[in-house]
Specification:
Length: 278
Amino acid sequence: MASLTPTPRMQFFTATGTPLVGGKLYTYAAGTTTPLATYTDATGATANTNPIILDARGECSVWVGAAQYYFVLRDPLDVLIWNADNINSSISTTNLTLTGTVTGGNASFVNIAYSGTLTGTGATSSGATTATTLVVTGNARNASLGVGTTASGVTGEIRATGTITASYSDERLKTDIQTLPHALDRVLKLRGVTYRPNDLAKSYGFSDARMQVGVLADDVARLLPEAVFPAPFDIGQNEDGSEFSKSGQNYLTVNYEKIVPLLIEAIKELTKRVEALE
């Protein structure tokens, strides 16, 4: 089962602010008056009564499954206080197909396939099989993603059968446009290298021992800092949304597409030099 957010322990009050002792919470399937069970704890072994009778503090424990609910709250004399429809658990089940067991307080899935959006704090998934447009394998921290295809299972890898489109490039959306200066000189100082992950990289989960090809973020940071960003594996987030280096080492990565403008201007500079010699 998945708990309501933020807590499975709920408390209700009268209009004057006193605990709603003996109040009644009816739970139905969303949009209906068909009773839908809730549970006394995260195991889902014991269903609540329906209605749930509130205790001396106006409280009750409510654990819900991966479904949408319609809650109706009444006083001890069955006078309506409020109702709320389409109440979700801590996940959104829109366009979601589940096979296996749903467990945990925030959501944990086994053998999940879906073509909609998975939401919820701490949501995880594993054993992904098939989906119409989207497949996720792994969990929130160790996932691979397949869009229109099967996910690879390699942590952090994204596969797509189509074009990945992001951000914007329209000139009408840009200001302070300047041509990159000294492009050829900067390109000549960059190193195109082959490499394999070392033991330190492997300790952070980069276990692919195949020969790789790329550039060094340290070089790019000196020559084109606009193309260098914190490495995603090393990014932590504070409660206020600010980010920090989890390792304290401020590891870097390169957005390779941002190097392309530098290469374009370098070719143009080189062409001018060749034309001058001719």
